[in-house]
Specification:
Number of strands: 2
Number of domains: 2
Largest sheet: 2 strands, antiparallel
Order of helices and strands: HHHHEE
Oligomer: single chain
Radius of gyration: 22 Å
Helix content: 25-40%
Length: about 140
Amino acid sequence: MNPEENEVSEETPVPNENEISTNYVQDSTMWNRNKTRVDDIFAYAIATDVINENDYVPKTLEECMHRNDWPRWQEAINAELNSLEKRHVFGPVVRTPIDVKPVGYKWVFAIKRNEKNEIVRYKARLVAQGGCDNP
């Protein structure tokens, strides 16, 4: 191996030896990069954890509706809609003028866990999408 290939440029961040991504592993297991052999078996084990239905957070309302935990997601969605209604976020429905492009929306879902990695709450938020600074 060429020594120049091993050099780390100043622009590339050097990872911590014990770095772990909590986005992919929910059990707080830590691997030492210098001692862990990253091969197909390791990759399969990580992929299995990621694909596990309990850890997967849906990206769309359609995905939520096809899951076994749909009733919990539905409760979270209803709680968000009730909260928006209570705070009078939406006014009366009016026809949009032809020269006005309305702002879109999307649902954002999250699963909240406690320190024992148990699901505590399903959370759904309705957010504005595609805002534009141009008048």
